[in-house]
Protein backbone atom coordinates (compact mmCIF):
# COMPACT_ATOMS: atom_id res chain seq x y z
CA UNK A 1 0.00 0.00 0.00
CA UNK A 2 1.30 3.41 -0.92
CA UNK A 3 1.43 5.87 1.97
CA UNK A 4 0.83 9.53 1.27
CA UNK A 5 2.68 12.31 3.03
CA UNK A 6 1.25 13.83 6.17
CA UNK A 7 -0.14 16.65 3.98
CA UNK A 8 -2.18 14.21 1.90
CA UNK A 9 -3.38 12.40 5.00
CA UNK A 10 -4.50 15.67 6.52
CA UNK A 11 -6.41 16.66 3.38
CA UNK A 12 -8.04 13.24 3.34
CA UNK A 13 -9.40 13.62 6.85
CA UNK A 14 -11.09 16.84 5.83
CA UNK A 15 -12.77 14.85 3.04
CA UNK A 16 -11.42 17.24 0.44
CA UNK A 17 -10.15 14.27 -1.52
CA UNK A 18 -12.04 10.97 -1.43
CA UNK A 19 -8.89 9.14 -2.57
CA UNK A 20 -6.79 10.60 0.23
CA UNK A 21 -9.63 9.90 2.67
CA UNK A 22 -9.50 6.23 1.67
CA UNK A 23 -5.76 6.16 2.30
CA UNK A 24 -6.26 7.58 5.79
CA UNK A 25 -8.96 4.99 6.44
CA UNK A 26 -6.51 2.28 5.44
CA UNK A 27 -3.83 3.81 7.68
CA UNK A 28 -6.15 3.69 10.67
CA UNK A 29 -7.16 0.15 9.77
CA UNK A 30 -3.51 -0.92 9.78
CA UNK A 31 -3.02 0.92 13.08
CA UNK A 32 -5.66 -1.36 14.63
CA UNK A 33 -4.46 -4.50 12.81
CA UNK A 34 -1.09 -3.97 14.44
CA UNK A 35 -2.75 -3.83 17.84
CA UNK A 36 -1.80 -0.23 18.61
CA UNK A 37 -3.58 1.72 21.32
CA UNK A 38 -3.35 5.27 22.61
CA UNK A 39 -1.95 6.62 24.84
CA UNK A 40 1.11 4.38 24.44
CA UNK A 41 2.27 2.21 27.30
CA UNK A 42 5.63 0.98 26.04
CA UNK A 43 8.43 3.25 24.84
CA UNK A 44 11.74 2.51 23.13
CA UNK A 45 13.70 2.26 25.33
CA UNK A 46 11.20 1.74 28.11
CA UNK A 47 13.05 3.66 30.85
CA UNK A 48 11.06 5.77 33.33
CA UNK A 49 12.82 9.01 32.34
CA UNK A 50 12.34 8.49 28.60
CA UNK A 51 8.68 7.63 29.15
CA UNK A 52 8.12 10.76 31.27
CA UNK A 53 9.80 13.01 28.68
CA UNK A 54 7.72 11.70 25.82
CA UNK A 55 4.40 11.48 27.65
CA UNK A 56 4.76 15.21 28.26
CA UNK A 57 5.60 15.86 24.59
CA UNK A 58 2.62 13.85 23.38
CA UNK A 59 0.40 15.94 25.67
CA UNK A 60 1.85 19.09 24.11
CA UNK A 61 1.23 17.77 20.61
CA UNK A 62 -2.36 16.82 21.44
CA UNK A 63 -2.98 20.48 22.33
CA UNK A 64 -1.77 21.74 18.94
CA UNK A 65 -4.26 23.09 16.44
CA UNK A 66 -4.58 20.68 13.52
CA UNK A 67 -5.30 23.45 10.99
CA UNK A 68 -1.91 22.88 9.36
CA UNK A 69 0.59 20.11 8.66
CA UNK A 70 2.45 20.97 11.86
CA UNK A 71 0.52 18.65 14.15
CA UNK A 72 1.00 15.56 12.01
CA UNK A 73 4.66 16.48 11.57
CA UNK A 74 5.05 16.73 15.34
CA UNK A 75 3.52 13.28 15.74
CA UNK A 76 5.80 11.83 13.06
CA UNK A 77 8.92 13.12 14.78
CA UNK A 78 7.91 12.15 18.30
CA UNK A 79 6.44 8.75 17.42
CA UNK A 80 9.73 7.75 15.81
CA UNK A 81 11.80 9.20 18.64
CA UNK A 82 9.71 7.80 21.47
CA UNK A 83 8.15 4.61 20.15
CA UNK A 84 9.14 3.10 16.82
CA UNK A 85 12.80 4.03 16.36
CA UNK A 86 15.35 1.52 17.62
CA UNK A 87 18.02 2.67 20.03
CA UNK A 88 21.54 1.26 19.83
CA UNK A 89 23.20 2.60 23.01
CA UNK A 90 22.16 3.17 26.60
CA UNK A 91 22.24 6.96 26.59
CA UNK A 92 22.29 7.79 22.88
CA UNK A 93 25.34 10.03 22.97
CA UNK A 94 29.01 10.01 23.94
CA UNK A 95 32.06 12.25 23.57
CA UNK A 96 35.54 11.21 22.44
CA UNK A 97 38.61 12.79 20.84
CA UNK A 98 38.96 12.53 17.09
CA UNK A 99 42.29 11.28 15.70
CA UNK A 100 44.79 14.13 15.86
CA UNK A 101 45.69 13.81 12.17
CA UNK A 102 42.04 14.33 11.22
CA UNK A 103 41.78 17.31 13.57
CA UNK A 104 44.89 18.90 12.09
CA UNK A 105 43.81 18.71 8.46
CA UNK A 106 40.31 19.98 9.28
CA UNK A 107 41.70 22.93 11.26
CA UNK A 108 43.99 23.83 8.36
CA UNK A 109 41.07 23.65 5.94
CA UNK A 110 38.95 25.79 8.25
CA UNK A 111 41.45 28.56 8.83
CA UNK A 112 42.59 28.65 5.22
CA UNK A 113 38.97 28.98 4.18
CA UNK A 114 38.21 31.65 6.76
CA UNK A 115 41.12 33.75 5.50
CA UNK A 116 39.82 33.67 1.94
CA UNK A 117 37.95 36.78 0.86
CA UNK A 118 35.22 34.95 -0.97
CA UNK A 119 33.44 32.48 1.27
CA UNK A 120 30.48 30.34 0.30
CA UNK A 121 27.35 31.04 2.31
CA UNK A 122 25.19 28.03 3.09
CA UNK A 123 21.60 28.09 1.91
CA UNK A 124 18.88 28.55 4.51
CA UNK A 125 18.56 25.59 6.91
CA UNK A 126 15.15 24.75 8.34
CA UNK A 127 16.16 24.53 11.99
CA UNK A 128 18.67 27.44 11.98
CA UNK A 129 17.54 30.90 13.06
CA UNK A 130 19.96 33.68 12.17
CA UNK A 131 20.42 36.88 10.22
CA UNK A 132 23.89 35.66 9.18
CA UNK A 133 23.73 32.33 7.40
CA UNK A 134 26.67 30.01 8.08
CA UNK A 135 29.74 30.01 5.90
CA UNK A 136 30.29 26.71 4.09
CA UNK A 137 33.77 25.38 3.30
CA UNK A 138 33.32 22.17 1.27
CA UNK A 139 35.88 19.56 0.28
CA UNK A 140 34.07 16.50 -1.03
CA UNK A 141 37.21 14.38 -1.37
CA UNK A 142 38.39 15.05 2.17
CA UNK A 143 34.89 14.51 3.56
CA UNK A 144 34.58 11.17 1.77
CA UNK A 145 37.94 10.10 3.14
CA UNK A 146 37.09 11.12 6.70
CA UNK A 147 33.68 9.44 6.78
CA UNK A 148 35.41 6.19 5.74
CA UNK A 149 38.28 6.63 8.20
CA UNK A 150 35.94 7.25 11.12
CA UNK A 151 33.67 4.30 10.31
CA UNK A 152 35.36 1.86 12.77
CA UNK A 153 34.93 4.34 15.62
CA UNK A 154 31.21 4.75 14.97
CA UNK A 155 30.76 0.98 14.68
CA UNK A 156 32.65 0.38 17.92
CA UNK A 157 30.52 2.96 19.75
CA UNK A 158 27.15 1.82 18.38
CA UNK A 159 27.87 -1.92 18.33
CA UNK A 160 26.45 -2.33 14.83
CA UNK A 161 27.82 -2.72 11.29
CA UNK A 162 27.34 0.59 9.47
CA UNK A 163 27.25 2.04 5.98
CA UNK A 164 28.86 5.48 5.57
CA UNK A 165 26.33 7.92 4.12
CA UNK A 166 28.10 11.28 4.06
CA UNK A 167 30.18 13.82 5.92
CA UNK A 168 28.82 17.34 5.67
CA UNK A 169 30.71 20.57 6.10
CA UNK A 170 32.60 22.40 7.09
CA UNK A 171 29.72 24.48 8.37
CA UNK A 172 30.82 27.70 10.09
CA UNK A 173 28.13 29.23 12.30
CA UNK A 174 28.26 32.96 12.96
CA UNK A 175 27.21 35.28 15.78
CA UNK A 176 23.58 35.47 16.90
CA UNK A 177 22.70 32.03 15.58
CA UNK A 178 20.62 29.33 17.22
CA UNK A 179 19.38 25.90 16.13
CA UNK A 180 15.94 24.75 17.15
CA UNK A 181 15.58 21.27 18.59
CA UNK A 182 15.12 18.70 15.85
CA UNK A 183 15.79 15.18 14.58
CA UNK A 184 17.89 14.16 11.59
CA UNK A 185 16.82 12.04 8.62
CA UNK A 186 15.42 8.63 9.51
CA UNK A 187 16.55 7.27 6.14
CA UNK A 188 20.29 7.75 6.54
CA UNK A 189 21.29 9.69 9.69
CA UNK A 190 21.07 6.98 12.34
CA UNK A 191 24.51 6.89 13.95
CA UNK A 192 26.21 10.27 13.58
CA UNK A 193 28.89 12.52 14.99
CA UNK A 194 29.72 16.18 15.31
CA UNK A 195 33.46 16.77 15.09
CA UNK A 196 34.04 20.26 16.46
CA UNK A 197 36.92 21.76 14.50
CA UNK A 198 37.38 25.16 16.14
CA UNK A 199 35.71 28.32 17.43
CA UNK A 200 36.67 31.93 18.04
CA UNK A 201 39.34 32.51 20.67
CA UNK A 202 37.16 34.74 22.84
CA UNK A 203 33.78 33.15 22.08
CA UNK A 204 31.37 32.26 24.85
CA UNK A 205 30.86 28.50 25.21
CA UNK A 206 28.02 27.33 22.96
CA UNK A 207 26.66 23.93 23.98
CA UNK A 208 24.97 21.29 21.90
CA UNK A 209 21.79 20.37 23.77
CA UNK A 210 20.69 16.74 23.53
CA UNK A 211 18.11 14.64 25.32
CA UNK A 212 19.01 11.10 26.34
CA UNK A 213 17.26 7.79 26.86
CA UNK A 214 16.98 8.30 30.61
CA UNK A 215 15.05 11.57 30.38
CA UNK A 216 17.99 13.92 30.93
CA UNK A 217 18.62 17.08 28.97
CA UNK A 218 22.37 17.42 28.43
CA UNK A 219 24.44 20.47 27.54
CA UNK A 220 27.71 19.35 25.95
CA UNK A 221 30.46 21.95 25.58
CA UNK A 222 32.86 20.69 22.93
CA UNK A 223 36.45 21.81 22.55
CA UNK A 224 38.38 21.76 19.29
CA UNK A 225 38.94 18.12 18.31
CA UNK A 226 36.12 16.71 20.45
CA UNK A 227 33.71 14.43 18.63
CA UNK A 228 30.16 13.85 19.82
CA UNK A 229 28.64 10.49 18.86
CA UNK A 230 24.85 10.59 18.87
CA UNK A 231 21.79 8.76 17.60
CA UNK A 232 20.75 11.71 15.53
CA UNK A 233 17.39 10.63 14.10
CA UNK A 234 16.26 9.31 17.49
CA UNK A 235 17.26 12.02 19.99
CA UNK A 236 16.08 15.62 19.83
CA UNK A 237 19.09 17.92 19.72
CA UNK A 238 19.97 21.49 18.83
CA UNK A 239 21.54 24.71 20.05
CA UNK A 240 18.57 26.74 21.31
CA UNK A 241 20.78 29.33 23.04
CA UNK A 242 22.06 32.04 20.73
CA UNK A 243 25.73 31.93 19.86
CA UNK A 244 27.78 34.82 21.18
CA UNK A 245 31.08 34.79 19.34
CA UNK A 246 33.00 35.02 16.11
CA UNK A 247 32.59 31.56 14.57
CA UNK A 248 31.91 27.92 15.44
CA UNK A 249 32.76 25.19 12.93
CA UNK A 250 32.07 21.45 12.78
CA UNK A 251 32.02 18.46 10.46
CA UNK A 252 28.92 16.23 10.57
CA UNK A 253 29.29 12.53 9.71
CA UNK A 254 26.33 10.21 9.17
CA UNK A 255 25.94 6.43 8.95
CA UNK A 256 23.12 3.88 8.88
CA UNK A 257 23.07 0.18 9.83
CA UNK A 258 23.65 -2.31 7.01
CA UNK A 259 20.25 -3.89 7.60
CA UNK A 260 18.40 -0.55 7.86
CA UNK A 261 15.04 -0.63 6.02
CA UNK A 262 14.21 3.04 5.56
CA UNK A 263 10.83 2.38 3.93
CA UNK A 264 9.68 0.12 6.77
CA UNK A 265 10.86 2.67 9.31
CA UNK A 266 8.72 5.36 7.69
CA UNK A 267 5.68 3.08 7.40
CA UNK A 268 5.98 2.13 11.07
CA UNK A 269 5.85 5.82 11.97
CA UNK A 270 2.67 6.47 9.96
CA UNK A 271 0.93 3.39 11.33
CA UNK A 272 1.75 4.30 14.95
CA UNK A 273 0.25 7.80 14.85
CA UNK A 274 -3.08 7.66 16.72
CA UNK A 275 -6.34 7.74 14.81
CA UNK A 276 -7.40 10.69 16.99
CA UNK A 277 -4.44 12.85 15.96
CA UNK A 278 -6.70 15.62 14.66
CA UNK A 279 -8.50 16.06 17.96
CA UNK A 280 -7.39 19.04 20.05
CA UNK A 281 -6.99 18.19 23.72
CA UNK A 282 -7.91 21.21 25.86
CA UNK A 283 -5.74 22.19 28.78
CA UNK A 284 -7.20 20.99 32.03
CA UNK A 285 -7.42 23.13 35.16
CA UNK A 286 -4.03 23.26 36.80
CA UNK A 287 -2.28 21.92 33.72
CA UNK A 288 0.98 23.89 33.60
CA UNK A 289 2.44 22.18 30.56
CA UNK A 290 4.15 24.67 28.25
CA UNK A 291 3.11 25.24 24.65
CA UNK A 292 4.97 23.46 21.87
CA UNK A 293 5.58 25.34 18.63
CA UNK A 294 6.55 23.66 15.38
CA UNK A 295 8.89 25.55 13.05
CA UNK A 296 8.72 23.38 9.92
CA UNK A 297 10.47 20.20 11.10
CA UNK A 298 11.89 21.62 14.35
CA UNK A 299 10.45 22.43 17.77
CA UNK A 300 10.43 25.35 20.21
CA UNK A 301 8.82 26.02 23.58
CA UNK A 302 8.45 29.82 23.47
CA UNK A 303 7.21 30.16 27.05
CA UNK A 304 10.58 28.99 28.40
CA UNK A 305 13.94 30.74 28.42
CA UNK A 306 15.83 30.13 25.16
CA UNK A 307 12.65 28.43 23.91
CA UNK A 308 13.39 25.03 25.44
CA UNK A 309 12.04 24.06 28.86
CA UNK A 310 14.54 21.27 29.42
CA UNK A 311 17.24 23.90 29.88
CA UNK A 312 15.84 24.63 33.35
CA UNK A 313 17.46 21.44 34.63
CA UNK A 314 20.38 20.09 32.61
CA UNK A 315 23.45 17.96 33.01
CA UNK A 316 26.49 19.93 31.81
CA UNK A 317 29.54 18.27 30.25
CA UNK A 318 32.74 20.12 29.41
CA UNK A 319 35.53 19.17 27.02
CA UNK A 320 38.15 18.30 26.21
CA UNK A 321 37.04 14.69 25.90
CA UNK A 322 39.06 12.00 27.74
CA UNK A 323 41.12 10.95 24.70
CA UNK A 324 41.14 8.96 21.49
CA UNK A 325 39.29 5.68 21.97
CA UNK A 326 37.80 6.79 25.31
CA UNK A 327 34.11 7.78 25.40
CA UNK A 328 32.45 9.86 28.10
CA UNK A 329 28.69 9.37 28.42
CA UNK A 330 25.80 8.85 30.78
CA UNK A 331 26.44 9.80 34.35
CA UNK A 332 30.14 10.41 33.74
CA UNK A 333 31.27 6.89 32.93
CA UNK A 334 34.24 6.58 30.57
CA UNK A 335 34.41 3.47 28.40
CA UNK A 336 37.02 2.28 25.90
CA UNK A 337 36.18 1.59 22.28
CA UNK A 338 37.27 -1.90 21.25
CA UNK A 339 38.89 -3.03 18.00
CA UNK A 340 39.50 0.42 16.57
CA UNK A 341 42.53 1.49 14.50
CA UNK A 342 45.48 2.88 16.46
CA UNK A 343 45.64 6.65 16.31
CA UNK A 344 49.00 6.43 14.54
CA UNK A 345 47.33 4.81 11.52
CA UNK A 346 45.48 8.05 10.84
CA UNK A 347 48.72 9.99 11.05
CA UNK A 348 50.29 7.67 8.47
CA UNK A 349 47.35 8.17 6.11
CA UNK A 350 47.51 11.93 6.48
CA UNK A 351 51.29 11.89 5.85
CA UNK A 352 50.93 9.83 2.69
CA UNK A 353 48.20 12.15 1.40
CA UNK A 354 50.45 15.14 1.94
CA UNK A 355 53.31 13.39 0.17
CA UNK A 356 51.15 12.66 -2.86
CA UNK A 357 50.33 16.33 -3.19
CA UNK A 358 54.00 17.43 -3.42
Quick structural gist:
The chain has helices at about 5-15, 20-35, 50-60, 70-85, 100-115, 140-150, 150-160, 260-270, 345-355, and strands at about 95, 120, 130, 135, 160-175, 180, 190-200, 210, 215-220, 225-230, 235-240, 245-255, 295, 300, 315-320, 325-330, 335. With about 350 residues, the chain is of the alpha+beta class. The strands form three sheets. Strands 3, 6, 8, 9, 11, 13, 14 and 15 form an eight-stranded mixed beta sheet that branches.
Please give a structural write-up.
The chain has 358 residues and is of the alpha+beta class. It has one domain: Sandwich (Jelly Rolls). Helix content is 32%, strand content 24%. Strands 3, 6, 8, 9, 11, 13, 14 and 15 form an 8-stranded mixed beta sheet that branches.
Pick out its properties.
Jelly Rolls, 358 residues, 17 strands, disordered C terminus, 7-stranded antiparallel β-sheet
Largest sheet report: 8 strands, mixed
- The computed structural class is alpha+beta
Q: Would you tell me which CATH topology applies?
A: Jelly Rolls
Distance between the termini: 57 Å
SSE run = HHHHEHEEEHHEEEEEEEEHEEEEEH
CATH class: Mainly Beta
CATH architecture: Sandwich
Number of helices: 9
Question: What topology does this entry show?
Answer:
Layout: H1 6-13, H2 18-33, H3 48-62, H4 70-84, E1 93-97, H5 100-115, E2 120-121, E3 128-129, E4 135-136, H6 140-149, H7 151-158, E5 162-174, E6 178-182, E7 191-199, E8 208-211, E9 217-221, E10 226-230, E11 237-239, E12 247-257, H8 262-272, E13 293-295, E14 298-300, E15 314-318, E16 326-329, E17 333-336, H9 343-357
Helix pairs in contact: 1-2, 3-4, 4-8, 5-9
